[in-house]
């Protein structure tokens, strides 16, 4: 028997849905009711390496260069001043093995007279950035032969005009080391100030650890970090911070490798080393580039905690940089390197009953840092790396089975080295594999689907270092073009779509000083007083501050949108905020209109929209820091549909509240 009522209903449904079905061929269809994968809390993070003056002269706010006279040239950064300087008045002495961490100090032979007859000056890191009306703290360690010595501290600007001064009368028992400090305000600002120290008194005066810090450090910590630089990171809300590198982990040779234990304790006991970027590039010489380790592992962990980010330390695995010396520790001598890894976990997580936990507590952090991740080597490759990685894996997992170990997959994501490492590490049942790619923008556009077919049940992926590199004839901050940023945004939609296998991602390098860079492009550029985010920074920030909790489907014609018709799309759901977030990249040279149909939830009537668009050759700069930044607008929805205008060469983020 024919059910005429049912047939009529079916016919009417078909008639009235024909236009909708037709539209859906051109629509982005977002299905919020079918989560594809959970998004890791560590999905988007930051990678810090002391390159481009990232630490000394960068986030570490010390203004005095070579404060302990330990550079290869002991007086680098210093000069003598005064009318009565004679041969022998100023000497560098070396205690050698009586103080191996800080052997050198300065001895000044004082003659009775005015404070302007003998002095020393420090040039700072490309000068000293001084702010008007800000308080500065001068400190030093000293040993005097005769009491009554007075130091006159003076900041002078580029015209040698005094812009701040203080006076310090040295006290304490003669012939013993003491530490004193004095604070004073700057009366004027200067981008390239210098520090003068004048002496008044008689006899020999020994000086060490001469220091000058601004008072407006991050969280107001004495001897802390440059506030505006850390604020740029905090604004990103990173899920992790990877440190301390990078190539400095490996070192040019094993003697030059990063050794975390030497970065703990009082500053005067931290052993300085040459930064490997000091001599890496002949076209960008940096003879005054050293690591003082005022920024050490304790400070890195503390910074991660400040940012609400997981700490991700990377340790040397017994291999120096393979592009330099390729030195190896023989396997039978690898135990100290493995023990360093075990001790680091104890330092981060141990209680007062443990040797290294006790040291952390003594440094002022009773609670554990809750370390969960540890990297074994950086950009190492070959069977020699796999041999050493297995030794680390066996020892660490035996004692700390819950620590997730991160392993290197080399330097080129398409090389034979990469494929060898990827296969070997998966056989080892690696927790996380770290992939790096510094490639042209075209590579990022073509590889937005790179992880679509990766094994969801195997190792997770850490996109640990990536940046789109435009034409190599373009140098410095000019490399941070919109062309690079939009290609990275397109690639990142692929990372986000594949959150089922990609757990972590971070752009690299992070910071660059406009006068002290070795490598470009970089995420954030600065000088002594100013800072700005590149277009790539704002792309990273848009992803990291709109991370969501679950990936959801965003399809056109039942297919993921990864470059077809020069369009890239990903979508997430944020269950905590009750929002759907769609990220869209249009790499076409023309504007286009797209409709987005939402399924599975009931939407609010108004959505918010963030848009970035520019000419491919546009960039931000110190003179125009906000040329390319997200522009906010509201968008009214029509039922379950949003109609969005995508400008040429644009990145859009649509945020839709749902019930």
UniProtKB/TrEMBL annotation:
SMART domains hit by this protein: Alpha-L-AF_C
Pfam families per the UniProt record, alphabetical: Alpha-L-AF_C (PF06964), ASD1_dom (PF22848)
Catalytic activity: Hydrolysis of terminal non-reducing alpha-L-arabinofuranoside residues in alpha-L-arabinosides
Example GO BP: L-arabinose metabolic process
Assigned EC number: 3.2.1.55
Every Alpha-L-arabinofuranosidase C-terminal domain range: 464-650
Similarity comment: family membership: Belongs to the glycosyl hydrolase 51 family.
Protein's name according to its UniProt entry: non-reducing end alpha-L-arabinofuranosidase
